[in-house]
Amino acid sequence: AVAAAPPDYGEITTNIDSSFHSTVTFSPLVQAGDSLVLVVTVGIRGDKSVSSVTYAGDNLTLAKAQGSGTTGGQRVEVWYLVNPDTGTNDVVVTFAAGLNQSGVAAITYTGVNQVSPVGATNGATGASTNPSVSLTTTYDDSLIVGGLSMRGGDTDPFTPGTGTTERFDMATGTNKSQDDGYAGGEESAPTAGAHTFDFTASVSDGFAIVAVELRGLSTPSVTTNAATSVNTTGATLNGNITDGGSSTVTKRGFQYGLTTGYGDNFTETGSSSTGTFSTVLSSRTPPPPRHHRR
User: Fold this and answer.
1) pLDDT value, residue 248
2) Region label for 268, one of left (φ > 0), alpha (ψ between -120 and 50) or beta (otherwise)
3) What predicted TM-score, i.e. pTM, was given to this entire model?
4) Please, which residues have CB within 8 angstroms of residue 162's CB and are 6 or more apart in sequence?
């Protein structure tokens, strides 16, 4: 597929909670935009996890979770929803068990592939003043989105790494053991390849960080294969949809004729997946086509 443009940032709503809770509910405003995706990033302690995330009653899909699995570490989960309802609706994050610290950010992006919005993902845990994760993107004109959860309110504020635009930077408080810090944002990835998503914390401590590739809009990729069963009265025309692009393919077909000026068309409509397709031309007068293209 040929990328048309990378995704763009829309708006953000955040929530932090340091009281004992098993759910978080807040109401972001999702404004209308082309090819919308809602991304919800959740930061918690390493021995906790998220059961589900919904927006306006619709279930989000987990893109990537990374955590230490221990009480001394941290965890980040990134969830997403394609084509969310616009307006003000509830985001509800339900945790597997009650907890005391959480930081949640709901961010919208426009211009996101609606068929396959997520490409590569990666995460890391450790203890450092420079939490970082490497991500090898698989498509041109992507956007790397992600978040950081770090032990201790004294780790906040954070400084984003080179090329990273920080969208949220917050903490449940200032206590170095009872509170936590959170940060996140996005980084442009114009060409597929290795990238680093990172932040610098105010002090060194345990962290979890996640990076997710959001794919931009793209056009389908189609190839023309050689005609087969060619005889004096007909031929079979062959094509191959190698990549459906950023939306569902609803029409496919061929142009054909005795010269490269073509002149005749065959089209079929309906939802089409990737793969080969063909059409049989028979009882042709004049003789069958010498040239065709998809």
Assistant:
1) 63
2) beta
3) 0.81
4) none
